[in-house]
Amino acid sequence: MPRTEALIFRPALEVSFEEFGILIPIADDRTSRVLASLREAGVDTSRLVQVVEEPLITREDLLRVHEPSYVEDLFSSGLERRLLEAYELVDERGGYVRYAPERASRPLSELLTRVLLGATCTYLACLRALRAGHAFSCAGGYHHAHAGFGHGFCVINDVVIALRRLMAEGRIRRAWVVDVDVHKGDGTAALTKDDPSIATLSIHMAAGWPLSLPSTLPDGRPHPSHIPSTVEIPVARGEEARYHELLGEGLTRLEEHLPHPDLAVVVWGADPYEKDELPSAAELSLSLEALFERDLLLWEFMRAREVPAAFLMAGGYGPHAWEPFARFLRWVFQGEGNVNC
Questions:
Q1: Distance (Å) of CA 225 to CA 2, 15, 40, 77, 189
Q2: CATH of domain 8-336
Q3: What InterPro entries does the annotation carry (predicted)?
Q4: How many CB atoms sit inside 10 A of residue 214's CB?
């Protein structure tokens, strides 16, 4: 595998959700604190970070993954309704939840640009990983978005969008998605269940959202959030001591199912962190060192098999969400990970 310099991609549009009137505890300084931590450790981030200013992900890319009617809504007057749905800002009676539009300083519609920039970072990180062996994105990991709707703060599924575009371009034929976010990667599992070219692993809370969702949609169809990943690893409350053992076994099963992939995308959630502040993440609680051990396990597994890997900073909520990402990236870019920097 040829190796050049691994890069960190970040979208130019990084604003607080509160600017849209959305009261979700995602810290808007997560990326800046990660990069500041790298600089404090002596890493020259001026050479490592590429700012993405224009979306490269197009409507055509979305249509490889999402239903045409859903894509049409995103690019028309239906956008606001779809955003309210994806960010779970309205209840069954139409009342606002975690949403105060009177406090917004930006139009809600601007969120689509933010999402497309994040998806672009995912695609570019995948491209760089194919060249460098590894790359990182400060956005993306929108693993809850389904074919015809978004939820779980995810409007589109950037992971599958990026992989399908890379396949259409002839750059890859087979891929893994390794999802270590605290929540089950339900959208990714549903979108790829009949696709033999993509194998998915999700290690997540055994209880809670989205597994707590009803088994059927309002129209009576089965709810796709219950479709299993290729390798499904539910971790029950109190099983944290077995987390790394379960993950290692799962990675072996993933490789047996689809050996020799051209690329792996890691949905690199920090929300299993014991200091995470999202209530729906409370069923799984890992220390900072346990998360670092998790990331080392992923890194060494991919490197031993020469599988290029794109890491996406996915879930992570509250003022400490940056810490697990920074801990691992300091190790990578200070040389321990043998990445040129």
A1: 38, 29, 41, 27, 8
A2: 3.40.800.20
A3: HDAC_classIV (IPR044150), HDACs (IPR000286), His_deacetylse_dom (IPR023801), His_deacetylse_dom_sf (IPR037138), Ureohydrolase_dom_sf (IPR023696)
A4: 10
Do the Cβ atoms of 340 and 135 come closer than 8 Å? Answer: no
For the chain, the residue count is 341
The DSSP code for 90 is B
Confidence of residue 27 (pLDDT cuts 50, 70, 90): low
Listing DSSP states for 22-76 in one string gives B-----TTHHHHHHHHHHHTT--TTTTEEEE-S----HHHHHTTS-HHHHHHHTS
Choose among 96, 255, 59: nearest CA to 175.
255
177, two tokens? 């998605």
pLDDT at position 298: 98
For residues 159 and 312, the answer to whether their CB atoms sit within 8 Å is: yes
User: What are the structural domain ranges in the chain?
Assistant: 8-336
Residue 39 has pLDDT above 90, yes or no: yes
pLDDT digits (tens, 9 = 90+) for 167-184: 999 999 999 999 999 999
* The two structure tokens encoding residue 339: 């990445």
Average pLDDT over residues 65-81: 97
Q: Which of 124, 138, 171, 131 is nearest to 5 (CA)?
A: 131
Would the pLDDT of 137 be above 90? yes
State the pLDDT confidence band at 33, using cuts at 50, 70 and 90. very high
DSSP H or E stretch at residue 168: helix 158-168
Closest CA to 85 of 103, 108, 102: 108
**pLDDT at residue 339 above 50?**
no
Can you say whether the dihedral through the CA atoms of 173, 119, 51, 169 is positive or negative?
positive
